[in-house]
Every structure is written in structure tokens, then in C-alpha cells.
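Explain this record to help learners:
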Amino acid sequence: MNDTRIEHTRTEHIAWINTLKGACILLVVLYHTVLPGFEGTVKYLSAGWIPAEIWVQFNTVLSPLRMPAFFFVSGLLATNGIINRPWKQVFTSRITNLFYLYILWGFIQWWSILGISTEITGQRISQNLNAAYAGSLIEFLKLTFMAMSTSWYLYGLGLYFLCAKLFRQYKLVLMAAAILLNYLAVEKIIPYWGPQSLAQYFLFFLLGAFWSQTMLRLSEWRRENYTPWAILAALAGIHAIFGLDKSLFMCILAVLFSIAACRWLNQHFSMRYINWIGRNTLQIYVIHRIFIEFFGMSAILFAQRHHLFEQAWFSFLWACFYPLAIVGLCSLCSVAIWSLTNRGLGQSLFVFPTLMKRAPGGASSG
């Protein structure tokens, strides 16, 4: 009976993690769908401005949750490798594998998006300085090194894991440095969006790696948590008063709320589909931007060329359903490509080649 209870607790623990990972990757796809491409179409709409603006603001409101929660869960899942496993066991499987995937998919995204933007649509969906739009190999390598790439999350994970393991005996010093980096990034003292992103989210990885139990306790509805919640809320409010965007305290509150929400959802509903997505975030993460570029620009150009935005009914449907349709389509296509290629040598698209025998089913996101 005791073993059954332990197993049930372990299953619940894994379930909420997969729910949170699944929600985060879908929010990432939604972010890439709405803010670069969809937002640019709002000025052409002849109807549906309110739902269109809701989508844009929805992405903005979720900014304290999306990447902080993703990195917190990643840190939590990396805890054992950081604290207990020797370098020999984790260097290739964690660090080398992440850097390999980052560079490999950076090249694949670059050539794919370059082909889409020049040969098919003649335009690009985003004007961001990004390795995916590099004009030369030198520019691509430079932007990739600076984490100014669509797959920068993988780069960040590799660097975070390396730093956390190297300095695991100095957790408080690491956290102090991470908090400082967060403020420097948020205030844009650190230049360029890639280095800013790396600096901004390190502390959430550390919270997952070294203080996950504390975070999990704080996410529970207990009387003793009222005081720390109030302190976090007050600090977030002070940040808001002084105009500090992306308050780290607001982000921590958002992560705590998301943990509680995912636990509750798994207790009351069947979350098997979103949990499956949570177990397979890698393939969606590395592939989805290619499909967003293709489907997004194709749909936008088609609507412009045929003057569809001048039709009120079309504009309203576009404003309401385009983001959902593109998120669903790009996520499904990403999983389909993974299913077709993740066999034989194709597994090397999702895992470092020397690890293929250890992971015959291909790479999972965990």
C-alpha cells in the first residue's frame, strides 16, 4: 500500500511537469505566431480589432510566465545531473548534446527560412536581428554565438547547466550573480536581445535546480505561504511603480501559480494530450519556426493579394482564429516531421550521434 502511494505521488509529480512543459511550448509557438506576423496584419483588418488586440495583449501578459516557467522546469529536471552525476556521465548527454542541437538546427532553420523567404514568399515574417535571417555564413556564426537565434533556449540550457555544475558548491553566489544579470538584462544595460535573454532567465533555471522543493512548497495553498506571497506581490508592485518591466518577483509568482494550476488540472481532468506534448517539446521547439515562416507568410500574402482583409467577415475570422490555427498546424507538422525522420540516421537530428544507441527511440525533451 505504501509503495502504491509512493508510485501515485511520483506519477502526479511527473504529470504536472509535463503539463507545464506542454503549455509552455504551445505558448512559445503562439508568441512566434502572434508578435512577428499576426500583429503586423492588425492594421489591415476591416473588422475584429478587439479580438486581434486581445491576442497581442495576451502574449504580453504571459511574458512573466512563458520562459521563466520553461527554464524553472528545465532546472528541476537537471537537478540530479548537476548535483549527483559525475562529469563523465553528463558532459556529452547534457552539454555537448544541447550545443550540437543548437548549432545543427540553427543551420537547418537558416537554410529553410532563407529558402522560404527568398524563393517562395519573397518576404520574411520578422524583422528581428536573427541568425535565421543571416545574409552570410559569418553573420550566421556571429549571431549564433550571441544567442540571437530562434533556438537560443538550447544554447541557454547548455550554458546554464555548465555554470550550475561548475559552481554547484556556491549556490548563493550563483543566485546573486543571476539576479544581477536579470536586472542588467531587463534594463537593457546588456546589449542585444540574445545576450539579454541568456542573462534574464538564468535565475529561474537555478531556482529549479537548487530550490525546487522550496518553490513547490510555496505553490501549495497553505496558510504559512500567505506571508511570502504577500512579500513577492509587494516587491512586484514596487517594480511596477518604478516602471521596471518583467519583474523577477512577478515572474516567480507566475511560476508558482502555473505549478499550482497544472497540479489542479491533473487532479481534476485528463491531461494526456497536453502531457504528451510536454514529453515531446524538443521537436516542436526546433521545427515550428520553419512552418510559421511558411504558413504564416503564405497566408498573409494570399490575403493581401486577394484583398481579403477588406472583407469584414474574413477580417473577423482572421482576428479570432488565425493564431489558434497556425499554432495547431505548425505544432502538428513539427511532430509529423519528427515522426518521419526520427529513425535510423535521422535520429541524429534530435540527439548527438554518440547517444543514439542509448536513446533508440530518439530524443525526448526531458
The two ends are 29 Å apart (CA to CA).
